[in-house]
Amino acid sequence: MTGGVRCMLMRGGTSKGAYFLADDLPSDPAARDDLLLRVMGTPDPRQIDGIGGAHPLTSKVAVVSRSPDAGAPGGADVDYLFLQIGVDEPVVSVRQNCGNLLAGVGPFAVERGLVEPGGAETAVRVRMLNSGSVATATFPTPGGRPAYAGGTAISGVPGTAAPVLLDFEGTAGSATGGALLPTGRVRDVVDGVEATLIDNGMPVVVAAAADFGVTGDESPAELEARLRDRIRSLRLRAGELMGLGDVSGASVPKTTLVAPPRAGGTIGTRTFIPLRVHTSIGVLGAVTVATAVLIDGAVGHDLAELPAPGEPMGIEHPTGRVDVDVRLDAADGAGARGVPAVRRAAIVRTARKLFDGTVFPRPPGDPHGA
Question: I need a labelling partner for 184 at 20 to 30 A (CA). Which of 32, 95, 198, 245 fits?
Answer without folding.
Answer: 95
